[in-house]
Amino acid sequence: QFELFKEICVLFQAPFNKKRAEKLRGCVDDAILDRLISAVTRRNELTHQDECQPPTMREAVEYFYDITELAVQLGSLASEGLA
Question: Are residues 83 and 12 in contact, defined by beta-carbon separation less than 8 angstroms?
Fold first, then answer.
């Protein structure tokens, strides 16, 4: 699911990693950037770490809804020229 989110971010030229998100501090609501960084961090843990806490079904569903909402919000910001 994150890879689909990333494709949408690339399409809208929105941030999809921590480094790009931090560059927008002060221009974009910090709450959006913090949620994005949290989602990216968790995705990286699951993808790249040998040992990490596996997600629960609840976390997986919440993650899906969160990155879907983030995609909509970032798309909206991009259409306004803010992202």
Answer: yes
Whole-prediction pTM: 0.85
For residue 25, give every residue at least 6 positions away whose Cβ sits within 8 Å of its Cβ, in sequence order, or none. Answer: 33
Which positions ≥6 away from 32 have C-beta within 8 Å? 70, 73, 74, 77
Q: What are phi and psi of 55, to 5 degrees?
A: -75, 150
Question: How confident is the model over 21-50, as pLDDT tens digits?
Answer: 999 899 889 999 999 999 999 999 999 998
- Burial of 46 per CB tally in 10 Å (0-12, 13-18, 19+): middle
Half-sphere exposure of 56 (CA within 13 A, CB side): 3
Residue 1 banded pLDDT, cuts 50, 70, 90: confident
What percent of the chain shows pLDDT beyond 90?
A: 61
